[in-house]
Amino acid sequence: MRRAQRCIRAAAATGLLTTVLTISVTAGAAMGTNGVPFSWPLLLEVLIPAGLTAGIHWRSRIAAALMLAYFLLSKALWVWNDLLLHDDDGGVAWADVMDSLDACLSGGLFVMVVLVCLYAAGVYGTVAWHRLHRRQ
After folding, report:
1. Hey, how many other C-beta atoms are within 10 angstroms of the C-beta on 17?
2. What is the mean pLDDT of the chain?
3. Residues 83-114: tens digit of each pLDDT
4. Distance between CA atoms of residues 12 and 3, nearest Å
5. Which helix (H) or strand (E) holds 40?
6. How many angstroms separate the most distant Cα atoms in the chain?
7. Which of 68, 118, 122, 129 has the fewest beta carbons closer than 10 A?
8. The pLDDT value given to residue 74
9. pLDDT tens-place string over residues 5-52
10. Cα of 74 vs its chain's centroid, Å
11. Count of CB atoms within 10 A of residue 40's CB?
């Protein structure tokens, strides 16, 4: 039970960190200080992780799984967008893919892997918590 609760807390803290970083990027875009053009869908980029983080905190298995999927999808879309910007000569090389991964994932590939592991631990924790809680 303790391991499940630790995994849930770690995933919720990671979600909170993701939400705060997204808020800072969105606020910078709204003020025009970070070079990212502001658009209203950026507010969804704040609301989605905030809601899913609250769901993880409340031990929702669905929220934990959706947060993991959302994080992976958002990083894949960042890399895809960056690759489209590099596609000058009609083809994308493997080196371009690795450069895009490193450029789009603030902190690099290592940070992304750590965050994915923490979100996966949240999925494990919520499932284990419900399994253990049902038996009592």
Report:
1. 14
2. 85
3. 666 666 656 566 666 666 666 555 567 788 89
4. 14
5. none
6. 62
7. 129
8. 87
9. 999 999 999 999 999 998 998 888 888 887 778 888 888 989 999 999
10. 7
11. 6
